[in-house]
């Protein structure tokens, strides 16, 4: 099924359409320019020969320097050499490399599917092994729950408490609390500083806008005074 999906993938079908168009175009061109050769004396032979040339069987000497049946059928021989060179570059380098790239792209998809399949097989294996394990071993190995005691003290802390070193443990716990508190205070302080900076910037922008508004008001007052004077002079 995977090979069939690769064979009929949309990318490969689109590439095949373009590939067939190139083969037909070059076949017609060779048929027009190289009719004096038996390989290209009709359109069907030209199509077959171009398809064979696509896989590397060019036969340059036989096509261009072999025995000629009729020189009159060789139309514009100077155009045949550039056409052959273009065919060699386009068909054997570009299109074949594109085909290889499509195959590699499809292989990546297959590898991803294989990785998912491998993980599912590993899960099935683990489940089968777990089902075959004896009951008491399964209960010892796998745990359904895990209890965490936050106030449970270590052996060293118990030792210090028993031998009168409670202050040390209290001091260590106090230091831990202080460090946590300091970290929180530092975070809060940085956030407050950032908010303060943003508020200061906003205040400066508001002050600048207020100054501009005052300047505009003064200019408008001056304009109104000039207009009043002009009206009074006209009267």
Automatic annotation (TrEMBL):
Gene3D superfamilies: 1.10.287.70. It is a multi-pass membrane protein. The keyword Amino-acid biosynthesis does not apply. It is found in: Membrane. Keywords: ANK repeat, Glycoprotein, Ion channel, Ion transport, Membrane, Repeat, Transmembrane, Transmembrane helix, Transport. It comes from the Eukaryota. One of its GO terms (molecular function) is monoatomic ion channel activity. One of its GO terms (cellular component) is transmembrane transporter complex. This is Ion transport domain-containing protein.
């Amino acid at each position: 099924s995977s090979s069939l999906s690769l064979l009929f993938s949309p990318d490969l079908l689109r590439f095949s359409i373009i590939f067939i168009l190139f083969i037909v175009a070059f076949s017609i061109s060779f048929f027009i320019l190289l009719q004096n050769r038996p390989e290209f004396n009709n359109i069907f032979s030209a199509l077959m020969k171009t398809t064979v040339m696509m896989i590397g069987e060019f036969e340059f000497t036989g096509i261009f320097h072999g025995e000629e049946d009729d020189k009159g059928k060789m139309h514009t021989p100077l155009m045949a050499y550039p056409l052959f060179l273009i065919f060699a570059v386009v068909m054997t380098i570009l299109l074949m490399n594109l085909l290889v790239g499509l195959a590699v792209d499809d292989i990546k998809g297959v590898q991803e599917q294989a990785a998912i399949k491998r993980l599912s097989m590993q899960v099935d294996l683990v489940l089968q092994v777990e089902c075959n394990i004896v009951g008491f071993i399964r209960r010892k190995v796998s745990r359904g729950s895990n209890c965490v005691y936050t106030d449970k003290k270590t052996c060293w802390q118990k030792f210090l408490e028993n031998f009168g070193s409670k202050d040390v443990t209290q001091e260590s716990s106090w230091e831990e609390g202080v460090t946590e508190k300091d970290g929180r205070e530092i975070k809060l302080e940085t956030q407050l500083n950032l908010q303060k900076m943003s508020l200061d910037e906003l205040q400066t922008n508001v002050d600048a806008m207020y100054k501009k508004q005052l300047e505009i008001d003064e200019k408008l007052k001056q304009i109104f005074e000039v207009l009043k004077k002009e009206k009074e002079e006209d009267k």
